[in-house]
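Lab notebook page, bench 4
Experiment: in silico fold of construct C2
Operator: M.H.
Input chain length: 593 residues
Purpose: comparison with the prior construct
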Amino acid sequence: MIKFVGLLSAFLAVILCSACAKHKTEVYTHTQGAFGHHTYCFTGPHLSESSEVNPFKDVRLMLSLDGPEGKFTIPGFFAADGNAAETSARSGDQWCVHARGFAAGTYKGEVSFERGEGLAFRQNTERGEALNGHQEVITFSVAASEKVDGWLRYNNSPYPRFSESGKIYLKSGTNSPENLLAFADIDGTYAYDTAKQFIKTYQTHIKDWKLGDPTWQNGKGKGLIGALNYLASEGINGVYFVTNNIGGDARDVWPFVSHDTLDRYDVSKLAQWDIVFQHAEELGIALQFVTQETENETMLDGGDMGQQRSLYYRELIARFGYHSAIVWNLGEENGKTPWNDDPFQTDEQRADMAAWFAAYDPYRHPVVIHTLPESDLKAPILKAFLGNKNLVGVSHQTSNKETVHDDLVRWRVASDSAGHSWIMAMDEIGPWHTGSQSDAVDPAHDTLRKEVLWGSLMAGAYGVEWYFGWRGDQHDLNAENFRSRQNLWRQTKHCIDFFQEFELHLDDIRPADDLVGDNAWCFSKPNSIYLVYLPNGGSTILDLSSTDKPVFGVSWTNPMNGEQEDATINVTGGEKVTLQAPSNEHDWIATVL
């Protein structure tokens, strides 16, 4: 083995040093929502996705920067000819790195460009042999701007915030289709299981594409770009998608050159993915990268943080980590499931994944994990993570709509008590076969609105994503027409808009259901704000006996349309008061302050 390593090292030296980098080019673009980014591309060794020297594993490009928030190191990537989204190139001599600042100021750093067997997955733990011409100094500046929201950040609060504007991010998202990227216009996209054919065109959303929006290769991409336009127009600000479903449900999305090659990446496919992600960022849509499914959680390195998994995560960060609003999701339905015999990851392996992102993601994006549907299945996994600072949140799945509120309250209290408050979202509502049905089947969405949407936000969740189920015309794997849930999008926006009004107080508001009757939920900032939700209208008792404020005003909002009743009444503080909804016809939310 020692001889093999030595021979390969010598071989690499001959191949790579015969084509050492000669020049650098810089491409600058500005994206809305955060600081502009620089892409630096270098001419280096001419390799291919399939060359004997693995350009993803045996060559390492890194940019070490020092800026207003300290030092950080950004990984680079093999870019083939530097224009692979347009050319579908699989070989070339271009190697690129995305650089983006965290705050206004000057950034200065040094590029290292090295070769060595397996050097890329070793990160910065050891040095390789430098390629000529690349101890270059990089300098760029970021100007202050009042229009910049900044980076989506976790701040030991139940609500993620943007670093510059300080705005809370409340999520109105779509969880389906989970194979969003199974798009016919993207290179190398196919379903290898003939029984599962869910490749999409998003034909119905081509009309939503607008002049000036991105495309590639003479007009490709309009369907998915148009779909994002439509979602944004309805107030959707988050999308959930799996980046590796080999062995999973749809079996049509992965970053590799094929479904049976796990250490070589499809350069043009990933470049086209990034065009989609860039447009999502322009629209203010956050990206939840779900890095694996329950069926394949041990596919890479048996579930360990080994070479394959390290390369996979490194490639995701290098190519896409510069986007300002990303959530890394360690895996869908992670853990042992009762419905299959697939191997599953251990608590230690899950903790190692979270620790890897904490150590090597220079952008410090939030890291969460998606749960199994039943309380008894998710509880052991989540308990093991309580207090672990590397995991900042939970992407909840719940099979029973009626238990959503209580389930989220339980974990909100548990994480707060552990001293490390989780950000939590209700990302997949069951049962698995139904989820959220289309407007044609369930036009009012009463149960979803009451039990899931308002039940989640009243429990302290920062938002929801809607899962489409596995049955019906537009389901979790074949959905291409997002207009099928237009009524649901609009009701979700009404809820998010309502809570956004309390943005300055949300960090201090807690579930307080003990202050109201069994027919209501309460969300309270003691002695200041009481939000009381009545799923079926009517009346309830609100206990204000512990307050010293003499008078509270009460106003009512209709969750179905977001409209507020004109009349505001006053109630007396320091005692129990009766809240009477304007009607018993539907749900109501009372604002008491």
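Observations: Confidence is low (pLDDT under 50) at residues 1-22. The domain at 512-592 is CATH 2.60.40 (Immunoglobulin-like).
Next step: discuss at group meeting.
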